[in-house]
Structure formats: structure tokens, C-alpha cells
Specification:
Shape of chain C: elongated
Chains: A mainly alpha (about 160), B alpha+beta (about 260), C mainly alpha (about 120)
Radius of gyration of chain B: 21 Å
Largest interface: A-B, 52 and 60 residues
Shape of chain B: elongated
CATH topology of chain C: 3 helical TM bundles of succinate and fumarate reductases
Number of strands of chain C: 0
CATH topology of the largest domain in chain B: Fumarate Reductase Iron-sulfur Protein, Chain B, domain 2
Number of domains of chain C: 1
Helix content of chain B: 25-40%
Number of domains of chain B: 2
Radius of gyration of chain C: 18 Å
Strand content of chain C: under 5%
Strand content of chain B: 5-15%
Largest sheet of chain B: 5 strands, mixed
Order of helices and strands of chain C: HHHHHH
Largest sheet of chain C: none
Strand order of the largest sheet of chain B: 2-1-5-3-4
Helix content of chain C: over 70%
CATH architecture of the largest domain in chain B: Orthogonal Bundle
Number of helices of chain B: 8
CATH superfamily of the largest domain in chain B: Alpha-helical ferredoxin
CATH architecture of chain C: Up-down Bundle
Oligomer: heterotrimer
Number of strands of chain B: 7
Structural class of chain B: alpha+beta
Structural class of chain C: mainly alpha
Order of helices and strands of chain B: EEHEEEEEHHHHHHH
Distance between the termini of chain C: 40 Å
CATH class of chain C: Mainly Alpha
CATH class of the largest domain in chain B: Mainly Alpha
Chain lengths: ~160, ~260, ~120
């Protein structure tokens, strides 16, 4: 590889896409579905995705269930009954937890991905702890988890308290 | 682990794609000391048990970036990982994830290097020719130590591919440049000799570009040189978002009299 | 030919611009959803969801606007998130264009469906 290979930038990719059918070694979905190996930031990435997908599904379901409003009081009440079961309450608690985590962690990520709260580049020293994986970031994740737990607990109190 | 010799089990991933070989693990019993590195253990196995083990290594001191492999589930440099620090009597060596496998622990870096090349990792400067044939035409830039500190960290990258292997986006996205290439894009943006920012922004602000990074931080978690690719990438995003202020003054070229 | 021109207009937005939209819709959604939830807790939770109370909410023009805004912001934010996940999953021009179009269609579908509920419910 030297200057003479300047022109074959795209062919480098093509060759390996063809070869990739054999064993490209990519971790695939298991790569991002496994949050256990690389610390809290990886957990945050994983949860942010899963809660995001979950909330989108909930949102679609929510738009669908509220559409029973247009079919009159009976349709509305039969829909409402579904949510007022123990299963429905637990499902809603999960939604509350997911939305709280996604919100708080999302706000942290907006700052982070704008380059704020990460620290400054400098001369790295042994043992080379990364400045971007600092306690400001980690405590953001912990606070998001804690708030999600509190919100779930409070939501559970309201729903189960109301039901009895 | 005590000072005296200790036995460990070294499990090595074996395969050979040119021979249509189905992958398996081979086990070797190796006597290790407190300071034995995984590379030492592998070379021991290669010398005394099975000379057919394929490994790539060179400097044995975390400078060349050749011996990256997955050790006990995480990408690490074999020469930089002591067996005693792994706290396990079984050491599992696999080829780096997200790289095409060639044989045993040896992986193919062509795509990784192609991504690196694509971000044009060299100083762009309108006032200075890229190719110089006459020695007298060579120029020097004037740069203060503070200006060097802005990018120095990222220039310590040895292209060992550990970050590329740890990245959850790279795990599924072959077009994503990966932490190494993106942090090098920041390295040149932060370097005040370089004025190729607009060009590089165009390359990385793509559908499979920098925004496919979601700050999972795994790259910085595994980097053996303290490059902190995640930091560089987020700072670069800050510039693309227009949040970070831009105050880079292009460095002056030292004149003949100076 | 028409498909390419449609694709081209979609691709005119740079990823950094899409991310700005993603962040802004996310922040806006948080505020509006918070107000939306407050409507549920100003009275006992069970009562607030009774049919006549909900219909009364729907006849409040500010609440209607709020609902419509939530619908739009959350749809854009959510479906863009889904698009990102799908694009990272598999790379080929075919897959990427199909997914982009499908996600956009789903987004427009949900907005249209929700808007219908809001319009009928509010008796506009």
C-alpha cells in the first residue's frame, strides 16, 4: 500500500464485501445485543436502543388504542379494561421506566454528542484511562437508571393504589 | 498468582480458510510466571507444542499493533496483557471480531485500512505542496506545544484494530468507518497545520458516517494507547453540530531566515 | 426515474441535519409529553380516563394542538431512530432505500391515523 494504490479506494471495499460471505468475522446482532463486556457506556447504548424500540412500539399501540375513542363510549371502556389488569399495570410501569430512562439518558447524550462534558484531550499516561469515560458521564447513566426506578415505583403506587 | 510457576490452560482458536477447515479450539498446558504475557504463552505453545499456530506479532511492546486478538472475550493486545491480570486459569484466544479471518488468530486488516485511508489521514494545506522532489522545497510549520497537545493524544494510534473490534456499530455496519478512522479525522481537524476540514466533513457526514456512532464508549474502553477515540469522535460531532467554537488558526510556515 | 428523484430529495438532508432534527424533536417531545401526562394526574388516575373526561379534553383546542404536536414529534423521532437501527443492520443500496421508504411511509401513516382520531374526537 502506498501512493500508487490511491485510486483503488472503492475496490478495497468491494473485494472484502465479496469475501465477506465466507467469514467476515463480524459479530452481527449479537455484537450490540450483548452489553456485558465494555462498561456502563455500553449498557447505556444498549438500553437506549431497546427502550427506544419499545417506546416506539408502545407509541404505535397507544395511537391505535386511543382511536377507539371515535367508536363511542363502549369501545373506549372495553379498551380501558385491558389496561386495568395487573398485566396492564406492569406493562405501563415498564413504559414509564423506559421513557424516563430514555429521556434522561437522551438528554445526557445530546450534550455528549455535542462534545460537552467529556473533558479535554491531553497527554495520555499509564494506565491510560479514557477521559471520555469519566464519572460525569457514568453518573449521568446512574442517575437515569435511578430516576427510571423511582418513576416506575411511583407509577406502580398510583396505578395499583388506584385499582384497589 | 504466586511468584512460582503456575500452570494455565491456553485455548486457541484454530481455522484455515484456504483449506476449508472447520474452526475448533486447541488446548495447551503452559507454565507461566507472574510477568508472562499472553503472547509469551502463545509463543511457548508454538515453540514446544504445536508449531502450526498462526499468530501475527512483531515488537512485543505495544508499539506495532500487530498482535491484537480477542482474549477472554475482550479485544486486547497479546503482548500487553499479562496472564496474571486476567485472573483465570483458562486463557481463551480468538481472532479479533469484526475482521475477516484468514488463519487461526490472524485477521485481514484491508477493510480497516481502507476506511482509514478514506478519511485522507494526512495534512492538507493549500499553501504547501503535498509532493516535494527537491529537498530545498521542504518546509516546516511553526506550532506551539499547546497546539500540539490538541491532537497529540490521537496521533498515538497504532492501528491495532482493537477499537474497531469492540465497536457495536462496526459489528453490523460494514460501511461505518469505525472509531479508528473517525478519531483520525478529528486528529487532523485539531491539527492547526491542516486546512482540509471541509473536505473531511463531507466524507464523514454521510449516511454511514460519524452519526452511526452512539457513544457506547467501547472503543476507548479497549484502546491500549490511551487514544480515547470516543472523545475525538464526540468532539468532532460537536463541530459538525456547530456547538463547539471554532478558533483554529492555520499554522505559519517557517521562512528560510527564521 | 420518479423513484430516483424521490430518493434524491430524501437524501438532500445531511446526516448532521437529520440528527439536529432528531435531537430537537426529542427535546420538544419530552416537554409536550410531560404536559400530556400532567393532564392524567391532575385528577385521580382512574377518573381522568373516563370517556366524558377524555372527550372534554379533546374539546379543548390547546390540548388538541398539543396532541397533534406530540404525534408529529414522537413519530419523527421514533421512526428516525428505527431507520438508524435498520441502516446499521444491513448495508446495500436496495435495503437502505426500501427501509427509508418503508419507515417514512409508516411515519406518515401513524401521523395520519392519529390525526383522524384527534379530528373525530374533537368534533372539529
Amino acid at each position: 500500500m502506498g501512493l500508487e494504490s490511491e485510486g483503488d479506494k472503492s475496490s478495497d471495499f468491494n473485494t472484502y464485501n465479496a469475501k465477506a460471505k465466507m467469514d467476515n468475522g463480524r459479530e452481527g446482532l449479537r455484537g450490540w445485543l450483548n452489553p456485558t463486556r465494555y462498561g456502563w457506556e455500553r449498557v447505556s447504548y444498549w438500553l437506549q436502543r431497546l427502550t427506544g424500540v419499545g417506546l416506539l412500539l408502545y407509541f404505535i399501540g397507544h395511537v391505535y388504542e386511543t382511536s377507539s375513542l371515535v367508536n363511542g363510549i363502549d369501545a373506549w371502556n372495553s379498551m380501558l379494561e385491558l389496561t386495568q389488569t395487573t398485566g396492564g399495570h406492569i406493562f405501563l410501569m415498564l413504559v414509564i421506566g423506559a421513557s424516563t430512562f430514555h429521556t434522561v439518558n437522551g438528554i445526557r447524550l445530546i450534550f455528549t454528542e455535542s462534545g460537552l462534558g467529556l473533558g479535554k484531550p491531553g497527554r495520555p499516561d499509564y494506565p491510560y484511562d479514557a477521559t471520555s469515560l469519566n464519572y460525569k458521564q457514568k453518573s449521568g447513566i446512574w442517575v437515569a437508571l435511578l430516576l427510571a426506578a423511582i418513576a416506575m415505583f411511583y407509577g406502580g403506587l398510583v396505578m395499583f393504589g388506584d385499582a384497589s | 498468582m504466586s511468584e512460582e510457576q503456575n500452570k494455565i490452560k491456553l485455548r486457541v482458536y484454530r481455522t484455515n480458510y484456504s483449506n476449508d477447515y472447520s474452526p475448533r479450539f486447541d488446548e495447551y498446558d503452559i507454565a507461566v510466571k507472574r510477568w508472562t504475557t499472553v503472547l509469551d504463552a502463545l509463543l511457548d505453545a508454538k515453540a514446544y507444542s504445536d508449531s502450526s499456530i498462526a499468530i501475527r506479532y512483531s515488537c512485543r511492546m505495544a508499539s506495532c499493533g500487530s498482535c491484537g486478538m480477542k482474549i477472554n472475550g475482550k479485544p486486547r493486545l497479546a503482548c500487553y496483557t499479562k496472564i496474571s491480570e486476567l485472573n483465570s486459569h483458562t486463557i481463551v484466544c480468538e481472532p479479533l471480531a469484526n475482521f475477516p479471518r484468514i488463519r487461526d488468530l490472524v485477521t485481514d486488516f484491508s477493510q480497516f485500512f481502507a476506511h482509514h485511508k478514506k478519511i485522507e489521514p494526512y495534512v492538507h494545506n493549500e499553501n504547501v505542496p503535498t509532493e516535494v522532489s527537491n529537498n530545498d522545497d521542504l518546509v516546516e510549520f511553526k506550532q506551539t506545544p499547546e497546539e500540539v497537545d490538541k491532537y497529540l493524544q490521537f496521533s498515538y494510534c497504532i492501528k491495532c484494530g482493537l477499537c474497531y473490534s469492540a465497536c457495536p456499530t462496526v459489528a453490523t455496519d460494514a460501511k461505518f468507518p469505525g472509531p479508528q478512522a473517525l478519531s483520525q479525522a478529528y486528529r487532523y481537524m485539531a491539527d492547526n497545520r491542516d486546512d482540509g476540514e471541509k473536505k473531511r466533513f463531507k466524507i464523514i457526514d454521510e449516511r454511514h458516517g460519524i452519526w452511526r456512532c452512539h457513544f457506547a464508549g467501547s472503543c476507548s474502553n479497549v484502546c491500549p494507547k490511551g487514544v480515547d477515540p470516543a472523545l475525538g469522535i464526540q468532539l468532532l460531532k460537536g463541530h459538525l453540530m456547530g456547538v463547539s467554537k471554532h478558533d483554529k488558526k492555520i499554522a505559519r510556515v517557517r521562512t528560510k531566515e527564521e | 426515474m420518479r423513484r430516483t428523484s424521490f430518493k434524491m430529495t430524501l437524501l438532500k438532508l445531511r446526516e448532521s441535519q437529520i440528527m439536529k432534527i432528531h435531537y430537537l424533536t426529542g427535546i420538544c417531545a419530552v416537554f409536550f409529553v410531560a404536559i400530556h401526562i400532567l393532564f392524567r394526574v391532575v385528577m385521580p388516575f382512574g377518573q381522568s380516563l373516563e370517556y366524558q373526561n377524555v372527550i372534554a379534553n379533546y374539546h379543548n383546542i390547546y390540548y388538541v394542538v398539543l396532541l397533534e404536536l406530540i404525534l408529529i414529534f414522537v413519530s419523527i423521532h421514533g421512526f428516525n431512530g428505527l431507520r438508524i437501527i435498520l441502516l446499521e443492520l444491513k448495508q446495500s443500496d436496495r435495503w437502505e432505500s426500501i427501509m427509508t421508504i418503508l419507515v417514512l411511509a409508516a411515519m406518515i401513516g401513524i401521523i395520519a391515523y392519529g390525526t383522524r382520531t384527534i379530528i373525530v374526537g374533537s368534533g372539529l
